[in-house]
Backbone:
């Protein structure tokens, strides 16, 4: 049986009930959450028996010049469904999200890579330091304002 995407509206309803004031909207099947609530939402999505998102496929970040988006791809290996969760960070300075490292150890290198290349910090990460570039490197080269 193939893995199926979760219904965005059903997911938003369940997450919204489990983590009040966390869901911004659902758009094209993507669950948009408030940036500072991402770790709470992720913990709920992992621990809720009906959702059981026990696998973090990836975390990525996109620079849209006036804001950043951080994208989480999650899978429930037991329930055989997937979800895309996004958080928006406005502005260019002091960009911080709560880490999901404590939920999925696979977030370690992904959060470090996003910090290294995009300059988005993850509060609560136990070892947030450069992973691809050397210590002392100035800036974050995948940002559109790097040069």
Residues:
């Amino acid at each position: 049986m193939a893995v199926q995407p979760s219904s965005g509206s059903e997911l938003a309803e369940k997450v919204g009930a489990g983590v009040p004031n966390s869901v911004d909207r659902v758009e094209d099947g993507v669950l948009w959450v408030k940036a500072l609530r991402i770790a709470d939402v992720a913990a709920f999505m992992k621990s809720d028996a009906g959702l059981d998102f026990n696998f973090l496929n990836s975390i990525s970040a996109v620079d849209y010049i006036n804001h950043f988006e951080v994208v989480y791809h999650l899978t429930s290996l037991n329930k055989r469904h997937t979800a895309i969760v996004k958080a928006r960070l406005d502005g260019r300075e002091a960009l911080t999200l709560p880490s999901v490292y404590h939920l999925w150890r696979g977030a370690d290198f992904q959060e470090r890579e996003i910090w290294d290349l995009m300059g988005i910090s993850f509060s609560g990460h136990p070892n947030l330091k450069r992973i691809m570039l050397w210590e002392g490197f100035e800036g974050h080269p995948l940002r559109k304002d790097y040069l």
